[in-house]
């Protein structure tokens, strides 16, 4: 879904920019520039790595907005505390202003993941993004995503993706 949307928005943005150059009417030009600006904002959101994660974890366009907002909030809290290896379900539930049981039920219902696995899944998805950049060692990535032990990071990564981080090949 993200790639199709990204391609479509890029095409629309390019075509709108070309049309704007050829328009002489200032009011029409201003309206087209506004449409172009909105398309670029949506394109930035689609290109945002968190957007892809939310779409993957939640039900996409079929899910209620409240549920997507809840996932986005949870994702933001995890993302803000990514390097904090002691960030826990207890802290996430406090940040979300929910009790642990309520958070557990809601995350399981929306994502199929218990909060602990939700946090781990977010960390591992960020690890994949960092691995794709090919700028960091395994130990640096483990530290950046909140694993205090590189061996444990490697074990979790292999459980999630079926291959160790050192053997991971991007799609």
UniProtKB/TrEMBL annotation:
<protein>
    <submittedName>
        <fullName>Helix-turn-helix domain-containing protein</fullName>
    </submittedName>
</protein>
<dbReference type="InterPro" id="IPR018060">
    <property type="entry name" value="HTH_AraC"/>
</dbReference>
<feature type="domain" description="HTH araC/xylS-type">
    <location>
        <begin position="72"/>
        <end position="171"/>
    </location>
</feature>
<dbReference type="InterPro" id="IPR009057">
    <property type="entry name" value="Homeodomain-like_sf"/>
</dbReference>
<dbReference type="InterPro" id="IPR020449">
    <property type="entry name" value="Tscrpt_reg_AraC-type_HTH"/>
</dbReference>
<keyword id="KW-0238">DNA-binding</keyword>
<dbReference type="Pfam" id="PF12833">
    <property type="entry name" value="HTH_18"/>
</dbReference>
<keyword id="KW-0804">Transcription</keyword>
<keyword id="KW-0805">Transcription regulation</keyword>
